[in-house]
Design brief:
The chain is mainly alpha-helical and 124 residues long. The chain folds into 2 domains: 52 residues, no CATH class; 71 residues, AhpD-like, CATH 1.20.1290. It contains 7 helices and no strands. It starts with a helix and ends with a helix. GO terms for molecular function: peroxiredoxin activity. InterPro entries: 4CMD/NDH-1_regulator (IPR052512), AhpD-like (IPR029032), CMD-like (IPR003779), Decarb_PcaC (IPR012788).
Length: 124
Amino acid sequence: MDDLQRRGTAIREEVLGTGHVARARAGVTAFDAPFQELITEAAWGRVWARDTIPLRERSMLTIALLAALGQDAELELHLRATARTGASEADVMEALLHVAIYAGVPRANHAIGIAKRVFAERAD
């Protein structure tokens, strides 16, 4: 494993949790291994690992983008990750208010429903 893979894996585990990363790795096949390598290096090792903004802000940006694009499964994953990134429920709402203005009320409304469910499950 090269340095970019190590750094990407470390930040991915910090944000998503070691359990999630272990489950993702366990499911890797020869077919999707190149994709997993790409996201570990590019998304996690190059972008998320940068020290220009903290994880909290990266988390909020990611949530806003995923909500705007309607990527529900990834949105849910990153909403769960806020417990580790430091983004609060109030931070998430601020991000989703921006989604409403810049990407549309229906996208934000749908994402708010997902966030309410995720945060309620976390509170149980």
